[in-house]
Amino acid sequence: MKDKPWYPVLYMFIVTAAFSSVVIGVGAVTHDRVLANERLAFEKSVVYALALAPGRRLGNSEIHEMFARRVKEPTNATAGAYYIEEGGQIAAYAIPIEGRGFWDQIKGVVGVGADMRTVTGIYFYQQHETPGLGAEITRHEFRDQFTGLRLSTIGKAVNIRRPGTTLGPGEVHAVTGATQTSTRLELLMNEDLEDWQQRMGVRGGEQ
Amino acid sequence: MEGIAAQSWQAFVVCISAVFTQNVLLSYFLGMCSFLAVSRQVKAAMGLGAAVTFVMVSTCLLNWIIYYHVLVPMGLEYFRLIIFIIVIAAFVQFVEMVIERYSPVLYQTLGIFLPLITVNCAILGAGLFMLIRQYSFIVTIGYSLGSGLGWWLAILAMAGIRQKLAVSRIPAGLQGPGIALLIAGMMALGFIGFTGVLAG
Amino acid sequence: MSPRTKQNRSMKLIQDGLWRNNPIFVQVLGICSTLAVTNLVLNTVVMCVALVWTVAMSSLTVSLLRNYTPRNVRMMVETLIIAFYVILVDQGLKAYWPEMSENLGAYVGLIITNCIVMGRTEAYGMNNPPAGAFIDGAFNALGYSFVLLIIAIVREALGMGTLLGYQLPFFSSQYWDKWIIMVMPPGAFFMLAMVTWMFKSMQIRLGSQGVKK
Description:
The complex is a heterotrimer. By secondary structure, chain A is of the alpha+beta class.
């Protein structure tokens, strides 16, 4: 039967169909989970950037529950930022930031208070920088510098300076040895933050 | 989606970076097998590099179209792995047939490399990276061209060096792949010097 | 085939895969996909497990189907089977270990083009019984893995002072200046060159003394 001319075609068809069905089955089963994982990574960033549970490490279901309960979807009035309310007033904004790092895309969230100037925290949920160098931006030693930082409304919103220099307001130290990642991070953060400030109408005021 | 001008500039930047600062072979380790095997003579390296570049640009663009206009609308993203490799294999097969038919001379020089290209991880790798980084079509042109040229540059440089090295005394354990990897490491180190050439 | 001969056959396959025909320093194949992740031991372990799974299962499946597969479509069938197992791993990671999937990125998918997988299925799986194919595939991949693990251990220890994420006693202290080059691409090339040199020299030395043929 192997040497009949139609055999190879039939064989390929059967084999392809068989393996493809298994793959599609696996895909269908895992599809929701994969989407949920991606969504969770983002929700985690928002929750930590807004410091909704300061000092605590939250489990996945806690994060999801907290996000669903407190975080509101962006509206035109918030210019694309997620936000939380307290007592009917907007208490803080969560601005998604995204851009090309040194090796690959960096994605994160910057939390900003109701004054649209003071940072509540930052968190990254995607980066592919060099471990031990650029990837250190995900460590709390780097990110903690941003908590309480006052963003500028003229010129660069945030300034990432070389380690060892004395810092002014709105400035943080870069990760030692990770010049390229730090430069790119400053660029991508400012691009998104300044754009948001512009759309919220706070650009160009006093420092 | 940004305008054509912005995309073209990004395509240019991505192209340059794929050749120098983030060379597909020296920084991302893609396409090593044929690189180590074929890099002994400059002539062979020229031929293989050209073939790889051509196949890379064509299949990346083809795969881009198939992914965003067939797989995504059907919700079958996870099929990309098998679809991409089939497209690459089919394309190489097709090119081989065309070359054999229309240019026996070209087939003589290039024909032997074509089967090697199908399993060149750089080609599939470039296709996967373009998806992860969500490049637009125009940027993908720049990226695939840069990746191909960067790979070509690396294998050409390696072949040049190895041709000279053929008359040197190399310890037995280091002959062949060992010395090639050492050279590749030094080249990779050298290419890091290009970092920061394009700030944008 | 007598049980004794079967056992000898298996032992030979195991030895070939791990040493005599080692994919990295003898065959020099399949380096692309895993070298990139050798800057962290954990990532390397996961990649190697994925590779062992893929090569062994693909070889096994190809072997099971070998009597039904016509000669002229065998490469397409092999590719299909390999892609099948890789997709399973890729999706599995995305669903159940998303951080690792993020870390490994496109390199899991690149196992498909890893020359070892195609090499073993074509060279052995297509022409031999399933048990042997599975062993051959698994131990080739293990031979590949142990070399990469050596590289990864050195890179992570010297470059970051940790092992599997845990701080090492000497390398994390202030007395050791971390070798940044080890976490960057050139470090991988140099380490692989060193390891290749070491093992090949050993093989030549042992071969000339006739201890291991």
